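[Solved] Which block belongs to which protein?

Original post:
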Amino acid sequence: MISNCSTVAIESDDDDGEGLYSQIVRTGTNALPAGTYYVRVREFGQNNTLGRYTLSVLATDIYEDDNSATRAASIATNNTPQSRTFHTGADVDWVRFTLTQSSLVTIETDGVTGGDTLLDLYAGDATTRLANDDDSGNGLYSRIQRTLAAGTYFLRVSEYGQNNSLALSTLRVRLG
């Protein structure tokens, strides 16, 4: 059961997980808003003892599922940061932006200490890579600066090596 106070249940599950264990998945329009939540775990019939169980919570950013260009979220070009996570090392984020005129564009990632991102810039077909960067930003974060013609562009952001999660990173696109 998930709740945002100690007495009101938001959702409950019996056996949607592996075997007879529980699993609750909240994504898209069903995602939980920011806040504090409580999880209550109990044995189904409350008539038996479980020697051991594992409880885990996987929290993703509000842009998931953005793991492909066809599911790319839009980003403003006014330097407004988008907060993102790489909840697994294999997670990638696709983002798109549109320019109405030729512009100098700066694209940057930043985040928690020790984070390392890889940034790829693609043309509007989302297959032609125009630029990529690993460590030109703050610390091991990425930064691409380039003059681009009017049109739509795609960004692919990942954790470098795709072998570590990253609890928090930001992505910004600015003109000039």
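(Second protein starts here: sequence line, then its structure tokens.)
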Amino acid sequence: LTLNETFAGQEILENGPLRTTFRLTYKDITVDGKTFSESRTFSIDAGSQLTKVIQEYGTGDTLTVAAGLVKRAEDDQAYTEYTENGTAAVIYEEPENEKAGKVFVGMVFPAGLERVISNTYTITNSKSQQEETHSHVLGITSYYPNQPITYYTGYGWDKFGFPSIDSFQNYIKHFSKALEEPLVVKIL
């Protein structure tokens, strides 16, 4: 597992009342002796719960890549759903917090996924020198040269529009369906 956590540059592409879009470029990363670049373009539309992410790598090689959600407890369950057309969605309910309430997080992959896994690992915190265990739900797919990966990620909250995990799952289902059947405008 290789993470590229620190972005090296940013560019605002759109900043209007209906959409905000920006691009982050990351430090070059080396995996299996090969170095390549990485960029992510983030876009969110007014009224949407989900941010569109377009991820690109500067390589001529095919790569196995993942996008994920943090799990707060190793044994928590995440839900994976697929539409008839192959769109995949991963949904996770955060443990309820007395102060914050319930938060539901999700990712939608219009091109589908090869697999979904739970990943747990332990690291030593460089500052505290204490061991920490982290868990994620990862959507795994392949990146092909010059074919950016597009996915959507976001959340719902029981204190604003999503009283239950079922209501957030329904939102994700409708969002996925809309991606598969986009609005078409014809000018006659």
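Accepted answer:
You had them paired correctly. Confirming on the second one: The mean pLDDT is 89.
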